[in-house]
Design goal:
- The structure is a single chain.
- By secondary structure, the protein is of the alpha/beta class.
- It has a single domain, classed as Rossmann fold.
- The protein is built from 5 helices and 7 strands.
- The protein has a 7-stranded mixed β-sheet.
- The longest helix has 14 residues.
Length: about 210
Amino acid sequence: MRIISGRFRRRKLLSNPGDVTRPILDRVKESVFQRLEADLEGKRVADVFAGTGTIGLEAMSRGAATCVFVEQDKVASSLLKQNIETLEVQGDTICWWTDALLCSYRPKGPDVARFTPFDVIFFDPPYKMAADIRPDTKLYRAVKRLTRPEVSVADALFVLRIPERTEVTMPPQWTVLWEVEMANMIVRVHRKTGEAEASEEAVTEETESPPEV
């Protein structure tokens, strides 16, 4: 895997050799990022279900100021840290080893105010899980939790990748702007048009693994 464009153009990235993560194809990534690039400059990004960081690091290469990577798999997290070190962006990233279904999306640590609330959120759940974006599921509640005002800005973008022909029901706070369908997948971009209530927080901070900055 590699960075396609920007300040880290053509830099190679480590990828997980197993089937836990699914690196996005270059042609799909380029099609999506060409349309997103103007929305990335100087912005705070979250890469949820980050894998080895292909998407979040591409966003940083194209101008994003910071990125919080959320990943639970230990092998992927280890490779992600190596990719961050290779690009020398440790000071502008947080590698958060935690469960994306349960975390608050509010990392703790030194200088975290630079990282939140998020302007752009990339959300790439395992394909077998994607259809669970429907009411009364943990995944749906996680997507809704990302709309809280302390987690994302009022006009945040939410970029979802799911398999083709997958039906999802998004929380009403996320409004579809456009989508790209190719290579057996859909990348759908939403704009935040509302905020979740504070009472909808599903976890306590004690359930989370501490982030690494």
